[in-house]
Task: structure prediction
Amino acid sequence: MDKLPGMKILYGHPSPRFWEPCALPLPELLGHANAQRPLSLYLHIPFCPKTDPPACGFCQFARQDLTSYGLAKGYVDDLLGEMGQHADTLGRRETAVVYFGGGTANILRQAEIARLMEGVHRRFRLAESAEINFEGYPQFFTQAQVRFLAGLGVNRISIGVQVLKPELLRFSGRAPAPARIRAAIELCRKLGIACSADLIVGWFQQTARDVIADIDTLHAWGVTGIVIHPIGLQGNSCFAREKDKLPKVEDSCRTFLLARERLLELGYRADSYTDYQKADLPPVKFLSLYRNVLSNDKIGLGYGANSVLAGDLAKPGVTFVNVSGLEPYHGRVQAGKGCAEAYFRFAAEDLRLLYVLKGLEGEPYLDAGKYEQLFGTGLEADFRGCWDALRERGWLDWPAGEGPRLKGDAIFLTAHIQRMLSEPRNRQLRRPGRG
Result:
């Protein structure tokens, strides 16, 4: 177990350090899309309210403080422009999921949100059962905003709670908003909107009792889902510089597993090692598609947004990420040549790894039979060394007729285990002249 506090979350494969600068035209990148697959559309809103410390102390996503609302208006213009450029190549494709993320998506005012939703409807065809997600900052989920979002067809919101205890929340520079959070959750329930809350484990001065209390409170208020994130420490964030003051990794692991146990006791279903949904509700579609990368296309719009068009074994596809920063993004949109800054061209081995890494993480979980059907080899044999190492520690179950399931401390260490599984391929990618 890594003795340093915090976790490095594995969002995909391979690491961006193996990607190449992208000069490919947008139609060539989008040529890897498959119109027969579900489409997941992600719209990135990079703006956040200013906090002290900056970026809530830990956030490493593509973001910036909103110093003038005029910046948001101009950015929405560019976002709609990029959306149109994609639709010109993809056509008016049926879309299973729309996700407004950030940053802080709900920092936008009603006029800009409405413009974006109108653009989505004009450029894409929403499936009858489409899931429309909106995430954001607790303070901004007012009663008026929640009702407005519901009127636009939003059927799921995600509230970035972090922690509820005011003495702990102050470390991120946020103002406590328990009444606003409770009111938003209760209104979502009345309007029939799914409502999830994100919590963080590994916070300054946080105890297991604090996390359990937050879970119990949110459950009592009526959330339909709770996400438990191990705190991510990357780059030169304030939290990363103060990591010696955070709980020890062993303590965070214990807290994380106690939180999991409590959520299961309360009747939530574990759809991944971090995501819990009320057992009588289906899995969150956006998250299922995010993990099941070989069966859908993901298009990310906005600065710093990531797209994944995995292709198939016969013709592996690509993943690419947009430029970051308002000025570079604006320039790319105005030039009409696509916004991708870097990309990676998958090989068949990368698709195999994507399937395993994401299936180990959550629903749809790894299935040995499907793996053999897809890749023509055995899941047990292909990664035997890793499975044996996990079994030796008592960290692996393999239910008959299913696939490997992490257990015990390994659940908390999922990202570390994913990197262990991908290391042989990473060694190949580090070689000069790799293919």
User: Anything to note?
Assistant: Confidence is low (pLDDT under 50) at residues 1-6. The radius of gyration is 21 Å. Residues 367-435 form one domain. The first strand starts at residue 20 and ends at 21.
